[in-house]
Known about the structure:
This protein has 13 helices and 23 strands. By secondary structure, it is of the alpha/beta class.
Amino acid sequence: MDDCFDLLVIGAGSGGLAAAKRAASYGVRVAIVEGDRVGGTCVIRGCVPKKLLVYGSAFGHLAEDARAYGWQCSAPVPQGGVLLQRVRDEVMRLEGIHRQGLIKAGVSLVEGWARLSGPHCVEVNASGQPARSLQADRLLIAVGGRPQRPSIPGVELAWVSDDLFLLETLPQRVVIVGAGFIACEVAAILLGLGVQVCQLVRGNQLLKGFDREAVAVVQEGLLADGLELRFQQQPIAIEGEPGALTVRTRSGEALACGGVLLATGRRPLLQGLDLEAAGVAVADERILVDGDQATSVPHIYAVGDVTDRVNLTPVAIDEGRAFADTIYGGKPRRVNHDLVAKAVFSQPELATVGLSEEEAIERFGSNFIEVHRARFRAMAQALPQRGPRNLLKLVVHRPDDRVLGCHMVGEHSAEIIQMAAIALGMGATKADFDRTMALHPTVAEEFVTMA
């Protein structure tokens, strides 16, 4: 009985932990298998350490602003190595909390790497330990994703996002390859910590999929902070040795730097799972699931980034809980993937919920879309006069006045958009926004006062 369970979860990241603890709360015998640290990408090498670095990198600007408000203070000197170590210490503390959470919930943690050996069987291999065979009525795959590297000479010399948090010191100059939110967030962090950054973008725009006007404001802020931004540039080789590298580009440039970060996308971590042994269908390197998180095998489910739908921590958590509520709690529900708030913790910060202006026009036609916007300098910047002006934007469906999208670039954008997401989820109209009394003086009041 020690190796037999009602539910076996593979992967102790956000989705797996949420599913395991919720299922255990319904009296289910649950085990969770993890070959790495407990907490997954978000806690160990993603959202949490990244946000701590964002906070740490902002103090240079805060010191500049303080002088504008009459504070006498010397120029701050960033100590990147100290910040990175303190972030690692905090991550270690949080991992311990997650381990204790499993114990409290009554979930068995099995440490090692899992491989499906049959429809109901999983073999777990841990270093220095004999393989262990586990059986369960149901399996849930929640192994997440991993950064992918382009196939170019010298790629092993570069970092991926996972490696960034392990650095002891920061180089003077870094080349970042990529245009997504990881590339832009890391660029802002490094710039704030005094690192020279050159960002290579294969296409001609940053942050594909976000509202273009909002992205332009983010780009303006990054350039003002000293980012070297090069569009339609691709690396073809990385040469040298750690700490003294050269990135050669397709256009013939040779860019010297102390480090290269490859932020070129992530893919589901399917290697080693042996999914074919259980008959689980895979397409385009992702596990196919239906609205109830079920795979092609009725008793095997999958949640989170391994399904490669909306790859965000809160989505994985909700998918895990919805699975447990539906299967074990007698409260069937499905996750709504259509209205998910998103944020890019760059400097300036971008947050959004709903349709971008471009998406709305594509879906409904330009004649049926009305855009309201406010562009202004926040009161906090009235004296420092630093950085780009805030952008607040509403995309409205003209026939019924419904707000389709809400976008913001500026300080505390994510905190503000989180509340706007409630309104959009309830079908709020522009008139509903207009009827809401403004709280003055705030940045967010512009959402209810813009004409």
